[in-house]
């Protein structure tokens, strides 16, 4: 991360600390653990929680992230950073846990699929055990991948999905499904206070430029004048949620009153083909890049769009940032970074 990004992030945190964007639902200070807290979403979540006055512990093994993502928080008295692997038990005293630790980009989670499965399953067992001991509320960052390549469109939470259990994406999809099972079983058996959020494709500043995900690939390619790699025909769809909307959804779900434990879809229902995303990226960057086609990866879902009826009803939540606006902000951030400061976590991008 460049100094420019650190300054920007610091200013953002200062703004939050002045109370301009405080979460109205949060009334008391809590000790909060964020696993995967140095990642793309985790670092924004930590920033927001510290800004809301909480005591935040960020736990990460830095597999797909770098310390620079939380460097601006390090000298804050309410923030602690622990290098730790969530597959190993750890003893902490906390009131809330957001469990985000898991590689999320296909190239990252397929790099060591056995470790990905362990991270989801053993990681869930470890955080659930901690939550049971502390009587903490624990939120699982699940995924739209639990729906696999869906036959139902858009996808409501009641849809049980169509996942290939033996394909290359299964380490992630089935790992996340098993984690949901564990959360529900701890809830039923131990009355554990849980929340499950199914996150749909989320993008924004601080995505790892070498994560191989479609937004980071297209923006990086466009800004460097490289060809834009569309896998398959580009007719497959995704629905892209800007990171600020997503973080707001996570916090509302964690702090929601009542019995609503989820699963709840959090995502932006505006659906785009991958070709449309490529064309918008070219328009917003002003790049001269050509669109080229590469083979479609195995089991790549053909369409994906969240039904957010439950999020609207129970959390009064819906996204506010359209793709054009969020993508422009993301492009601006990518323009400001020094790409040489980023280490590709895996060769898959
Ligand atoms: P990310 O890769 O930037 O963040 C994941 C973080 O977890 C990284 O900091 C990584 O180093 C850490 N991590 C990985 N394995 C770990 C382990 N064994 N122990 C400790 N830390 C570990 O990805 P992200 O996009 O920020 O995703 C965060 C969470 O949200 C993930 O659980 C992911 O499955 C979920 N999610 C994200 C999206 C999305 O579009 N961004 C969509 C669905 C679900
Ligand atoms: N994709 C693409 N070109 C790229 C990267 C991804 O066409 O350079 C496609 C990919 O095949 C998928 C979609 O974009 O259909 C979203 O991919 P991503 O890896 O971001 O996330 P997914 O939703 O598949 O987990």
User: How big a fraction of the residues is strand?
Assistant: 15-25%
CATH topology annotation: Rossmann fold
In total, the number of domains comes to: 1
Oligomer category: single chain
By DSSP (H or I, 4+ residues per run), the number of helices equals: 10
Helix content class: 25-40%
CATH homology superfamily: NAD(P)-binding Rossmann-like Domain
What is the architecture at the second tier of CATH? 3-Layer(aba) Sandwich
Low-confidence stretches: 1-5
What would you call the shape? globular
Mean pLDDT: 93
Give a count of the beta strands, DSSP E runs of length 2 or more: 13
Write down the Rg. Answer: 19 Å
Largest sheet: 7 strands, parallel
- CATH class reads Alpha Beta
Instruction: Give the helices and strands as they follow along the chain.
Output: HEHEEEHHEHEEHEEEHEEHEHH
Which hetero ligands occur in this complex?
A: nicotinamide-adenine-dinucleotide, uridine-5'-diphosphate
Short characterization:
The chain has 349 residues and is of the alpha/beta class. The chain has helices spanning 3-17, 40-51, 106-109, 113-134, 170-190, 214-223, 243-255, 274-285, 309-315, 323-336; strands spanning 31-35, 55-60, 79-83, 96-99, 137-143, 194-199, 202-203, 228-231, 237-239, 241-242, 264-266, 271-273, 291-294.
């Amino acid at each position: 991360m460049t100094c420019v990004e650190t300054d920007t992030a610091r200013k953002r945190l200062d703004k939050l600390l002045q109370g301009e964007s405080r979460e109205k639902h949060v009334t008391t200070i809590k000790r909060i653990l964020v696993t995967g807290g140095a990642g793309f979403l985790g670092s924004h979540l930590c920033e927001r929680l510290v800004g809301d006055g909480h005591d935040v512990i960020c736990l990460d093994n830095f597999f797909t992230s770098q310390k620079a993502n939380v460097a601006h928080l390090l000298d804050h008295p309410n923030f602690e950073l622990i290098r730790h692997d969530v597959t190993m038990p750890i003893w902490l005293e906390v009131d809330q846990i957001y469990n985000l630790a898991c590689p999320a980009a296909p190239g990252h989670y397929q790099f060591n699929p056995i470790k990905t499965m362990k991270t989801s399953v053993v990681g869930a067992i470890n955080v659930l055990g901690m939550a049971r001991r502390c009587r903490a509320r624990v939120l699982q960052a699940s995924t739209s991948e639990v729906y696999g390549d869906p036959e139902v469109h858009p996808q409501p939470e009641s849809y049980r999905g169509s996942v290939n259990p033996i394909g290359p994406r299964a380490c992630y999809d089935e790992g996340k499904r098993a984690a949901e099972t564990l959360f529900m079983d701890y809830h039923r058996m131990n009355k554990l206070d849980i929340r499950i959020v199914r996150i749909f494709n989320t993008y924004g500043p601080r995505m790892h430029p070498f994560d191989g995900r479609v937004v980071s690939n297209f923006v990086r390619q466009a800004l460097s004048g490289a060809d834009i790699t569309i896998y398959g025909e580009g007719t497959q769809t995704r629905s892209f949620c800007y990171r600020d909307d997503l973080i707001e959804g996570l916090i509302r779900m964690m702090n929601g009153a009542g019995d609503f434990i989820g699963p709840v879809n959090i995502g932006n229902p505006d659906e785009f083909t991958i070709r449309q995303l490529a064309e918008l990226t070219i328009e917003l960057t002003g790049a001269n890049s050509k669109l080229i086609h590469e083979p479609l990866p195995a089991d790549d879902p053909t369409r994906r769009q969240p039904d957010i009826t439950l999020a609207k009803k129970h959390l009064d939540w819906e996204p506010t940032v359209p793709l054009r606006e969020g993508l422009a902000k993301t492009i601006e951030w990518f323009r400001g970074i020094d790409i040489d400061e980023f280490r590709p976590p895996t060769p898959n991008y």
